[in-house]
Amino acid sequence: MHGMCVPSHDFCLTFPFGGMVALFGVAGYVMRRSMPSLISGVVIGGALIATGAASLRAWSTGAASFPWTASSAAVTGVLAYVMWKKFLVSHAMFPSGILAISSAIMLAFYAKNLFIDGGNPPKKPAKESAD
User: Fold this and answer.
1) pTM to 2 decimal places
2) CA dihedral sign of residues 66, 70, 73, 79
């Protein structure tokens, strides 16, 4: 498993990003008792983690992970748009500003992965040990 997760694989950043989104939703609930924050954060974060897991599974089997990376990008694009609009109204860095900025960065990463890199690099065959 050493060397498997490098920044050129979408799932390597999708998992922590999805976790951050979910944690921000929980933080919104804890700080302000905002049920919409909790639900949207957990649902969107969970969707990102699920698409990351599907991308990892596809990559692990040698199948195309493009649809899963594109799905992650779509969810992230919607999140970036909604959080940017919210930030423009509230001017609050937490959570809308941070989520808008991090979503934009992730969207750029997904675009690079999909359109410049051509998707996740293929899985390298396991090296056979010399007996």
Assistant:
1) 0.86
2) negative
